[in-house]
Amino acid sequence: MRHLRHTVVHAYLAALCAPLGLTAWLSTPAQSSADWMTAVPLPQSSAAIRPADGAEVEQTPPDFSWPALEPGTSYRFVLHYPDGTEHSRTVGANWLNWHEVLPPGSYTWHVDAATEQGLESSAVRGFRVRPDAVPFVVPDPGTLVSLASAKPHPRALPDAELLAAMLAARGDAVERLLREAAGTEPPGDEPTGDTVADIERQAFAAVDGAVAALLAYLATDDEAHYDRALAHTAALAAWNPRGTTSYASADQAARGVAAVLVVAYDWLFPRLDAAQRQGLLAVLETRVGDMYHDVAGNGARLAVHPYDSHGNQTLTYVAMASTLLAGDLPAADQWLRDTLPLTLNWLSPWGGEDGGFANGTAYAQWTTGDLLIPWSFLRWTVGVDVAQKAWVRNHGRFLAYFLPPGAPTGVFGDGAEQPLGEQWARFGKALMLFAPSSLGRWYGWQLRGEDASRPQMLLAALGDAGPPVFPVDTPNAALFPSIGWVAMHSDLADAERTSIYFKSSPYGSYNHSHADQNGFVVVVRGQPLLIDSGWYDGYATEHWSRWYKQTRAHNAITFDGGRGQAVFEENGDLGRGRIADFVNADDYAIAVGDAAAAYGGALDVAERTLVYLRPGTLVVHDRLSSAVPRRWEWNLHALEPMGAESNGEISIAYGGATLCVALLGTTPPTFSQHDAFTAPPSGEGLARQWHGSFVVSEPSPRAELVAVLRVGCPATPLGSRQTATGWEIDVAGRRVTIGGGRPIVQPLD
Question: Does pTM surpass 0.85?
């Protein structure tokens, strides 16, 4: 994955449960201490309980998993069908691919765990298979090995007629590829350098050159391109698999080198002699074997602890490689048995069937883009089409809402501030072709600027001709409950839209996520007005740790001089949030976030309600409570200095778009701003950013803050008054009543 430049800290996570029927992080038992799934002590209980109790599943059968007990535990999985029949399977792992399509209806399941201490039964959980659920049955491991072994090389290609049509439809991109490939030279000695980043840069450049040479040969069957592809392959194979590009030293570089070598083995196989084949197999046995032993051997680490950004991708790469090597390399048959079924069960640990990606939009693109080619290879080699999995089918919808066409940046998490237009377009288009939908086809058509000569596009499925129509039944707001993200747009189909993004996530601040529960971002006409501040200058840098990941860097609540939510890397506390309510109507949307648990016990109540009045007004209501008095801080961040208006509002302007913010109350907080970071980012040419805070200077154990944000800073006055139960705000021709339950939005008389 060439866009990542850090080492992920492997961490044990809490189990997943299902409040409100949604998957969520667990710190205390959700049902009772008698349920071993929720009572397993940390750090063992990191795998999700899937499906969640009360879930309605879009995939049949759904993915089954649960927390792992000590090694050697035997699990008896019991599934009760709607007709009352009982079916069971006994497995030695904490996950299961069911063997048949489950018809629509209501099911229950539980797991009996046999340990050295005896037999324990979990609580019984229920789920419903929806009538429109899409079948996705994973063949048993033996069948997968047989399918892969029986297919002649090259395996990792569609049939010849379809491949010819794909390349013919992309003639200009192929010509560009051929020019690029003709200018490549095979790499020399293995990379050297003082840092992993130095090694990766050299390795990725060598891998890119080899990929271009292989694609050029694939597209032309030309002798010169074959010679060049063979030379690149031989040079990479000569690198010491236990040297600087070993999996232990530079896992991403190792993964890239192994991938291109296994593809070269498959694509060039018909022309390789026995010695060349055996030479490649010997190298791959070491390179792929090292990856396998890390993620799937020795206790199947990724099954027990799947929340590993690098490891999960490595698992998919091993599964892909094993399908291309099965029957040729004896070890590959076992690799396939152990990795491909697990890969298909844990395709993405960063979200549920709704298609969400909790690790942020930047990593959503980088990760999905990195996996599109392996997914296509699985489709072509063993006929397993992961496009039918619910998460993949819905992931394009997630991208359409959180990276809509014309978005200036991403939202939430590491790298969100980076304008990654070429990658958004390339990966977005390729995903929509891989797993098409009506919204996805429209979305992909709107994206611009992709490098069509890259393999994700050259090997993408063929799509419909002509511009697709925006689906008329598409709502302008969406909740992705598995990750706790909400997107609210004035008009999703309009490039001039106003967009409000809100987050209160059960994933908390884990890995690439930040301590920004109940934080929000505002974009107007393609201009970022309220931003998540800071710069992704690397994983676990000083800036990342002391500013970028902290609550004070976001449009969220802090107290007592910038104290905020738990940062996972500091103390192991996830700092999780949850979406407590969501509603979308024609002219407004409401989202409620509960972030009390995110503050590590410092706050009793941290509830934020967003009432978005389309097209350009947002009411934000915060209820805050603590056992001790606090100086409460309402933070906001922008790319330009914020101005003070004569009516007491704060104005934000950027790129011709404006936003005014008024904080209401009987004792208005004081406002101040600065452009400093607690730790400066590394890098050159980074623009200044401005960080403002409304501060309630008098300490109090409770606070109720109401802010009104208006796009365009209209001159029309807004009215507000406190009532016995809350607030009434008259703005934009409507009255918003807050207090005593879900906010009420009514037209003004």
Answer: yes
